[in-house]
Amino acid sequence: MWRILDSLSYPVLIFIAAFMLLAPFSPMPHIVEKIIMFKNGNLTRAIDIFDVCFHLAPTFLLAAKFFRQRSQK
């Protein structure tokens, strides 16, 4: 698994993470919508929690690559 993460370049991961954080572009990105739902206590359905994980997965991969690379130095 680490070989796959190491083979991905930072520009590709940054692009995918930014795209997934902002998708869909209208009327409101899902992450913003889910943060509002979480703030109001409405983030309880399994599909909504899966949606948050789906949209944040590339960001977590980017963070994992960054911290893995820093720990190897």
Keywords summarizing the entry:
single chain, 73 residues, mainly alpha, 0% strand, elongated
Largest sheet: none
* Radius of gyration over all CA atoms, rounded: 14 Å
Described by the principal axes of the CA atoms, the overall outline is elongated
Overall SS class: mainly alpha
The tally of helices reads 4
Integer count of domains: 1
Strand content: under 5%
- Tally the beta strands: 0
N-to-C span: 20 Å
Low-confidence sequence ranges: none
Mean pLDDT: 91
The helical percent reads over 70%
H/E order of the elements? HHHH
SSE topology sketch:
Layout: H1 2-7, H2 10-22, H3 30-40, H4 46-71
Describe this structure in words.
The protein is mostly helical and 73 residues long. The protein has one domain (2-71). It is built from 4 helices and no strands. The chain has helices at residues 2-7, 10-22, 30-40, 46-71. The two termini are 20 Å apart. The mean pLDDT is 91.
Write a concise synopsis of the structure shown.
With 73 residues, the protein is mostly helical. It has 4 helices and no strands. Helix 2 packs antiparallel against helix 4.
